[in-house]
Amino acid sequence: MARNMQPVLKRCRTLGISPAVMGYNKSSNRNPGAQKRTKKSEYAMQLNEKQKVKFVYGVLEKQFRMYYEKAAKMPGKTGDNLMSLVERRLDNVVFRLGLASTRREARQLVNHGHFTVNGKRVNIPSYLVNAGDVIAVSEKSAGATRFKNMKEEDSFVTTPKWLERDKNALRGKVTALPARDDIDFEVEDHLIVELYSK
Description:
five-stranded antiparallel beta sheet; 9 helices; 5 strands
């Protein structure tokens, strides 16, 4: 299985993303996204936006291209559909519910089968959730120290409006499909659409 092993903070600086988006609190003295070359070509801007989204969600090129093709066939704006699709990934939902501290950690926890969707164990990080789905920590995993500590901690997690979180039961519900304004970082999706539609 292909994995993205790039150093997170270095990549965040290159793409101009805040490390907080990735679930990291570490900050750097350097300006995020600061580069020697100030003026970028149109292609460079489009490529940068695509790489930013791929990096944030931990998706590789082949899969991201499939998301784009699926989004293009859906009714509505392709850019909004694309962002909604990647936001609905199970690993991202686990992260957004606060059941993992980073998307990378969420991906690993899902891979190891720690979560259920509507009572069925799912170990595919790219699984797309739908409105009404209930995501929960599996009974077998709920006794693990990691999840026990999560229950006891009173850390405040900002859950997006399309998700509902039940901290005591270590579960969450998808109340609606994510809209464009639910994305937690700035992205110009029209540049990605322009890049792929050439």
